[in-house]
Amino acid sequence: METFKAYVIRRSGESLAGQIEEMSLDALPGGDVLVKVHYSGVNFKDGLASVPEGKVVKEYPIIPGIDLAGEVVSSSHPDFREGDPVLCTGYGLGTAHHGGFSEYARIPADWLLPLPAGLSLREAMGIGTAGFTAALSVDRLMHCGVTPEAGTVLVTGATGGVGSFAVDILARSGFEVTASTGKTSQEAWLKRLGAADVIGREDVAGSGAGPLGKQRWAGAVDPVGGPGLEDILKNIRYGGAVALSGLTGGTAFNSTVHPFILRGVQLLGIDSVFCPKDWRTRVWNKLGQEWKPERALSAGIKEASLEELPEVLQSILQGKAVGRTVIRLA
């Protein structure tokens, strides 16, 4: 091909503007593997890349898209050959290195994974960074001793990408799940994903006004962060844990030492960007097999074209998105 389509964000003074552009392969950054992109998932971080206050992109112009799945066109690395189905999430993709909202991408081989058995390219991007982050969160909770027998697990931001997949994976693993959301109109959908109970954001605090509240949950998956994290921590049961992965609710929260030293609560930071490759591979393989989030994939994945991407980015920044959207590129 001589040219291909990509969604490019450029800076002009203090403002940013994105549009579809015709590009050549010479414009792509270095890497061992050239991939024909079939799908790219849309994440909150992609929305941040499109606005000046987002502060996630190192340098513009950039092709955003922190996820991609596609087929190898050419490779100079022995691990990948022409025709191999692959996926990439994290690292600098879409923030420091041209990303997935493009018909072609050139990527370092160390960033790529073979497509896990049990997943199609579309399903892999339906899961994407959001579902992978949810799976990492569940994996860490289990590693820290949170079991179905220990009690209910809370999931905040449950209608979002991370939250909806966490509900599905936890329920599939035998946990009773309480889903917290500001979109209580989605209660029926969340229960189809596996939630036993759905509560509003304001119900997470309960009635505890002091440094410790009622021991309500064995653990929590929190992709929201912000002030609400204080209420989650003080309502976690003895020996429980909170897996924190997001900042849609803000970057700061107030708390005390009491949940940590009186109840042995653990606060677990979840990073999907630079997750070690052996852990990354193991969790992705589980997502294709015993943790495959069938309900979330069938009930919560919407497909859009590259031309519709600006509207999708606006929706996710405004907190209107429900479930996941994938951009179809091939």
Explain what this protein looks like in three dimensions.
This protein is an alpha/beta fold and 330 residues long. The chain contains nine helices and 15 strands. It is globular and about 65 Å long. The mean pLDDT is 94.
Distinct helical segment count: 9
| Uncertain runs | none
User: Quick one: overall form?
Assistant: globular
Q: Helix proportion of residues, in percent?
A: 25-40%
The fraction of residues assigned to DSSP E strands is 25-35%
Order of helices and strands: EEEHEEEEHEHEHEEHEHEHHEHE
Overall pLDDT confidence: 94
The oligomerization state is: single chain
Q: What composes the largest sheet? A: 7 strands, mixed
The gyration radius over C-alpha positions equals 20 Å
Distance from first to last alpha carbon: 14 Å
Which structural class best describes the helix and strand composition? alpha/beta
DSSP, total strands: 15
Short description:
The chain is an alpha/beta fold and 330 residues long.
Topology overview:
Layout: E1 4-12, E2 15-23, E3 33-41, H1 44-49, E4 67-75, E5 85-89, E6 104-107, E7 113-114, H2 121-143, E8 153-155, H3 161-172, E9 177-181, H4 187-193, E10 197-200, E11 217-222, H5 228-233, E12 236-244, H6 258-262, E13 266-269, H7 277-288, H8 294-299, E14 301-304, H9 309-317, E15 324-328
Parallel strand pairs: 8-9, 8-11, 9-10, 11-12, 12-13, 14-15
Antiparallel strand pairs: 1-2, 3-4, 3-6, 3-15, 4-5, 5-7
Helix pairs in contact: 2-3, 2-7
